[in-house]
């Protein structure tokens, strides 16, 4: 039983790929050991290897514990030729000798075996397990070549392999013995490399358990977890240098710097207080996105004129690194201020015309075209909201829609693209547009994820919905439809944003009308000539229904079948769909409801089978044609119930409607107990079928209960 | 503040030190290319040399013009024309990163006193049909070098690949000299009188100002379009003629080879560079509409890719596909 260490030494792996690659290598090695029967002890019992994994920008490594020295021998029965071929007249033929030679046995040790096809020669052979070193050396190169990289390269002449960056060394040790794994022109040895600058370079690793300590001695912290711990501690310590200061927690940034460093430390730097007059959004973006600095705030939560930089070295004794970083930040902030001031010389109003030169999408024209469409669509939305009694500023929406994209022409946005929208909002405010206009522009890209908040105002919500609906409409019309993992225009995010915004603002907007209007915006445009002639609206509505389903399940936590049942009865009005799902979810586990679900499924099946058999339901139900008391009772009960349910539905009192529907269980149960639907008498049968059809029609308007998943007893 | 301000290399010393460093490591020192380019990559010393199997290492300074980046000499960090030092190592040696770090030491940076990181930054130029994988090298939070492993150039897969190191000389000099404005960089210092210094601003400010005015305000849009069309037409015409110099059955191998070798593809490439620059100029001038933009980029790309593919054939690294027109003609004459 041994420990196995594999380390792949590379040039700097992109931070965003490191954690995933570490996990994948660990998984691959673990699966290889299990598949090739190289586990012992507890690991073998669980058939799961015990793996530790490591990664730094320059390496991926795993240590597997409890690796068998070799595979167990396996007894195997090998089939040979048919006896009648192997023996002629009781004498062995060359075929018999050949088989004996192949399995390495004397002819008299060969057995005979009877199979359905006749008698054959057979032999019991012991397959000697191979040593772990042999198996690993042979199988690992394929595993390494199979690691997924979002972007990879080749570097050796003849391009024999691709990897994320050039491979420079490998270590593979089974306890103290080198396993000569060969990949990418490198053969594994027992020498790793330490920190580029802080160590002398090469470091010998005696055996797997000495790996992390050897690296620690060469100024490399080999696990992400420990680097994160160190960085957190160092951030705390550095922040304490200033009174009342706190660093702003930022999980994404933290994970990035963990994956950019081998031996992290932290410095606290400062910048001139006068930069604090720039908007905080701009300052934080420069620090976080461009310089990978943590922002620092004072006790009141306000941005402080400090930053924290995570270094890939141990210290900054002369303050040179701090000085250099401060210099860079100063230049960046100066730039930002310069851009801010320059941008003010051309107010947003004057930039509308400039949008003609900014491409929205190559086939969909300029942002000027888009602004025109979005302003019209936003106006339509506002009119609908207005009509439904929502109070909002129509003029503000129109103004915001025209100005929304003008910040794309601003220097500050060209420099900090992630601030688009935000900068427009800030400029609108600085240029004395109304607060409603500024807020709507500021929030236009919200929500950027399911976790992000929706636009704060109704004006902002209308603009954000119009902007996204316009993009979805245009892209779908061009045939740029998201599929699988491919969604280059982030249309799913846009659609999720529409759903979430409509839901949280409780907006009475129908999706069909929204997208009809959005598509109408392209009517007569240049773009329209490029449109494909398929059912764009249908495709969009199916896509939106999928997004609504995702929202109800993932963001709202409703059960799959409750959502399916509800959306089968309509997915146009999002607020209504939510209310119906809530009602269905609240009753779906009651016994009466489960029973109704089963009955509805049964009705559907009967109707389908009848139709397949060419047996038609009566066009309208004639209650007098029904005979049995049970069916008469059901017809009567359902008629009363349908009226009540209908009126409750009109008032959107879905929970009460559900309770009403539940009351139908006894007559339905009695019907199926007593009545044979497929009667011989044609009129009777047709009316029984019509009764079922009417039940389905009347009671599936809130949800299609046949979609409810029940546990069959 | 890598070194004392007084002992920090001047701008010209920085160039001399880097060139000296790479010359000692076997690079051919080339001169800046004398056609306007947006980056050192566009010099034929990179664009054409990285094609094909022939090893080549070179280093050269390349003033790089980006009309839209001009700021009238007002912005301390932005230039219309910045200076790159470009190093091409084909194929890249295994210790290419170590060599690079060594070059930083050679200009006076004690790496033990600084923080250096290689952060993912892949490079792509749709206009050149070129892309590569690499990093931006960050020195105390400052991007000082773009380090790229070229994978494709002019639409041609590269084998072997090349490593391209592009040092931003103004940034590096400002860092070494610890100044906040590019214009304050000491370009030269009189060796006999250290108080007599020539700042970067004296050497280049007028150029930044005047070219910003030209690029943004005064370049004649119509004429610039016309120039672009003329250069494009000539480049395209040369590429077409090269098609017809390809093997025809009547010629013997020697004559064919000679006709191929003397064909001025290098001239065609200059014309393509002209187009690229004029496009950038029109862009800065705000003269390219949304609908035109994609199309013009595609046209220039077609020229760049055309030159690269032809060059590979000319050098004998790829079999010449007989041009379709030639084939037709032969068929026609045979019939």
Q: If you had to describe this structure to a student in words, what would you say it looks like?
A:
The complex is a heterodimer of chains A (713) and B (335). Helix content of chain A is 49%, strand content 14%. Chain A has a 5-stranded antiparallel beta sheet with strand order 2-3-1-9-10. In chain A, α23 (591-612) packs across α27 and α24 (629-650) runs antiparallel to α25. The model of chain A has no long low-confidence stretch (mean pLDDT 92). With 713 residues, chain A is of the alpha+beta class. Chain A starts with a strand and ends in a 14-residue tail after the last helix. Chain A folds into 5 domains: 2-71 and 131-217; 74-127, no CATH class; 224-344, no CATH class; 351-557; 580-707, Isoleucyl-tRNA Synthetase, Domain 1 (Orthogonal Bundle). The longest helix of chain A is centred in the middle third of the chain and has 25 residues, at 320-344. Chain A has 27 helices and 20 strands. Chain B is α+β, with helices and mostly antiparallel strands and 335 residues long. Chain B folds into 2 domains: 11-217, BirA Bifunctional Protein, domain 2 (2-Layer Sandwich); 220-324, Class II aaRS and biotin synthetases, domain 2 (Methane Monooxygenase Hydroxylase, Chain G, domain 1, Up-down Bundle), CATH 1.20.58.180. Chain B contains 10 helices and 11 strands. Chain B is globular. At the A-B interface, α10 and β20 of A face β4, β6, β7 and α9 of B.
């Amino acid at each position: 039983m041994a420990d196995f260490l594999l380390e792949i030494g590379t040039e700097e792996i992109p931070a965003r790929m490191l954690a995933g690659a570490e996990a994948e290598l660990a998984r691959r090695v673990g699966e290889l050991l299990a598949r090739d029967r190289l586990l012992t002890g507890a690991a073998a019992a669980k058939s799961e290897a015990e793996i530790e994994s490591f990664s730094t920008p320059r390496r991926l490594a795993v240590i597997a514990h409890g690796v068998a020295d070799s595979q167990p021998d396996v007894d195997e029965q090998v089939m040979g030729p048919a006896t009648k071929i192997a023996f002629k007249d009781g004498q062995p033929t060359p075929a018999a000798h050949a088989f004996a030679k192949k399995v390495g046995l004397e002819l008299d040790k060969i057995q005979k075996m009877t199979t359905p096809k006749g008698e054959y020669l057979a032999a019991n052979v012991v397959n000697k397990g191979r040593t772990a070193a042999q198996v690993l050396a042979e199988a690992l190169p394929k595993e390494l070549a199979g690691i997924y990289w979002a972007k990879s390269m080749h570097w050796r002449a003849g391009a024999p392999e691709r990897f994320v960056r050039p491979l420079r060394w490998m270590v593979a040790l089974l306890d103290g013995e080198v396993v000569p794994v060969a990949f990418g022109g490198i053969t594994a040895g027992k020498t790793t490399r330490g920190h580029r600058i802080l160590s002398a370079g090469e470091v010998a690793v005696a055996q797997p358990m000495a790996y992390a300590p050897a690296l620690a001695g060469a100024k490399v912290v080999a696990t992400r977890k420990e680097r994160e711990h160190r960085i957190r501690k160092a951030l705390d310590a550095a922040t304490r240098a200033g009174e009342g200061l706190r660093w702003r927690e930022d999980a994404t940034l933290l994970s990035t710097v963990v994956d950019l460093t081998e031996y992290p430390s932290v410095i606290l730097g400062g910048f001139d207080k006068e930069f604090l007059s720039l908007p905080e959004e701009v300052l934080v973006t420069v620090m976080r996105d461009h310089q990978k600095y943590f922002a620092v705030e004072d006790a009141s939560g306000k941005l402080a004129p400090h930053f924290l930089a995570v270094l890939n070295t141990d210290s900054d004794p002369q303050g040179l690194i701090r000085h250099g970083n401060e210099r860079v930040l100063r230049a960046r902030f100066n730039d930002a201020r310069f851009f801010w001031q320059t941008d003010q010389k051309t107010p947003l109003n004057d930039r509308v015309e400039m949008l003609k030169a900014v491409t929205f999408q190559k086939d969909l024209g300029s942002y000027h075209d888009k602004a025109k469409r979005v302003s019209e669509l936003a106006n339509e939305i506002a009119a609908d909201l207005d009509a439904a009694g929502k109070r909002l500023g129509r003029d503000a929406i129109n103004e915001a829609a025209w100005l929304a994209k003008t910040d794309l022409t601003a220097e500050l946005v060209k420099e900090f693209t992630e601030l688009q929208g935000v900068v427009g909002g800030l400029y609108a405010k600085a240029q004395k547009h109304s607060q409603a206009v500024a807020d709507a522009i500021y929030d236009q890209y919200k929500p950027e994820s399911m976790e992000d908040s929706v636009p704060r105002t109704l004006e902002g919500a209308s603009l954000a919905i119009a902007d996204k609906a316009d993009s979805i409409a245009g892209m779908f019309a061009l045939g740029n439809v998201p599929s699988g993992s491919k969604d280059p225009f982030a249309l799913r995010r846009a659609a999720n944003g529409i759903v979430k915004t409509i839901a949280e603002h409780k907006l009475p907007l129908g999706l069909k009308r929204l997208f009809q209007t959005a598509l109408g915006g392209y009517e007569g445009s240049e773009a329209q000539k490029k449109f494909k002639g398929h059912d764009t609206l249908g495709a969009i509505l199916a896509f939106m229904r999928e997004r609504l389903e995702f929202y109800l399940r993932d963001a709202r936590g409703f059960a799959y079948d409750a959502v399916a049942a509800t959306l089968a009865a309509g997915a146009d009005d999002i607020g209504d769909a939510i209310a119906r799902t809530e009602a269905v979810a609240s009753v779906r586990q009651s016994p009466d409801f489960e029973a109704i679900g089963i009955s509805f499924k049964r009705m559907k099946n009967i109707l389908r089978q009848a139709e397949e058999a060419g047996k038609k339901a009566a066009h309208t139900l004639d209650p007098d044609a029904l005979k049995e008391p049970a069916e008469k009772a059901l017809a009567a009960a359902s008629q009363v119930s349908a009226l009540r349910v209908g009126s409750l539905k009109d008032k959107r009192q879905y929970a009460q409607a559900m309770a009403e529907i539940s009351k139908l269980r006894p007559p339905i149960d009695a019907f199926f107990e007593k009545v044979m639907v497929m009667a011989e008498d044609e009129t009777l049968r047709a009316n029984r079928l019509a009764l079922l059809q009417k039940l389905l029609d009347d009671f599936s308007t809130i949800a299609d209960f046949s979609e409810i998943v029940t546990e069959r007893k | 503040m890598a070194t004392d301000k007084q002992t920090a290399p001047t701008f010209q010393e920085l160039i001399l030190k880097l060139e000296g460093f790479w010359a000692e490591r076997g690079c051919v020192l080339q001169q800046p290319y004398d056609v306007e380019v947006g980056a050192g990559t566009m010099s034929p010393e990179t664009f054409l040399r990285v094609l094909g199997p022939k090893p080549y290492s070179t280093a050269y300074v390349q003033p790089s013009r980006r009309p839209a980046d001009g700021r009238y000499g007002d912005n301390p960090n932005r230039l219309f024309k910045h200076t790159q030092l470009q190093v091409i190592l084909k194929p890249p040696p295994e210790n290419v990163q170590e060599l690079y770090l060594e070059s930083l030491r050679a200009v006076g940076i004690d790496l033990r006193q600084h923080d250096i990181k290689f952060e993912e930054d892949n490079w792509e130029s749709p206009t050149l049909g070129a892309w590569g994988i690499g990093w931006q090298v960050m020195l105390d939070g400052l991007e000082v070098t773009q380090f790229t492993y070229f994978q494709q150039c002019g639409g041609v897969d590269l084998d072997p690949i090349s490593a391209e190191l592009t040092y931003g000389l103004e940034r590096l000099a400002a860092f070494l000299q610890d100044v906040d404005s590019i214009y304050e960089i000491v370009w030269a210092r009189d060796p006999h009188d250290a108080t007599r210094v020539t700042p970067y601003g004296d050497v280049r400010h007028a150029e930044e100002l005047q070219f910003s005015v030209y690029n943004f305000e005064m370049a004649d849009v119509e004429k610039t379009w016309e120039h672009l069309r003329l250069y494009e037409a000539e480049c395209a015409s040369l590429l077409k003629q090269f098609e017809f110099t390809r093997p025809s059955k009547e010629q013997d191998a020697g004559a064919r080879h000679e006709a191929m070798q003397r064909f001025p593809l290098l001239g065609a490439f200059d014309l393509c560079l002209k187009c690229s620059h004029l496009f950038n100029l029109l862009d800065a001038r705000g003269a390219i509409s949304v609908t035109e933009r994609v199309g013009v980029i595609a046209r220039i790309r077609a020229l760049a890719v055309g030159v690269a593919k032809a060059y590979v054939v000319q050098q004998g690294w790829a079999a010449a596909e007989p041009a379709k027109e030639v084939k037709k003609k032969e068929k026609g004459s045979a019939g």
